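Morning!

This is the sequence you dropped in the shared folder:
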Amino acid sequence: MRIAEDQELDLVEISAKVDPPVCKIIDYQKYLYQQKKKAKEMKSNASKVVIKEIRFGPNTDEHDFQFKLKHAINFLQEGSKVKAYVFFRGRSILFSEQGEKLLLRFAVELEEYGKAEQMPKLEGKRMIMMLTPNKKK
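The structure's back. Tokens below.
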């Protein structure tokens, strides 16, 4: 403790359970600052999951399908998840099997860029399917 006071630093106990206890002479405020800085840096390096949505109608024609497919390919290559859904308006809910075929075809077309996280399921007036990008090598 005397050595720490002479150097105007703090005596910090590292491991108390060992015999004799392990201590270190450091500037404690500087140590805390560096710990916060490391934690902040680790947080900024953490990847954030981005979900992009693509909306279809039950009667989406071929050109629109291809256009949305290209966008989905770009999103998956960026590393974003894609949430594809068919929105049913009014009586178009009768075409739910048509919407399911559309989403399954969408998943098959995107097979080399990403995989289906879940199969299409109907939630209210929407049939939703999630796609995750393939791992980069």
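Headline: Residues 28-45 form the longest helix (18 residues).

More detail when I'm at my desk.
O.
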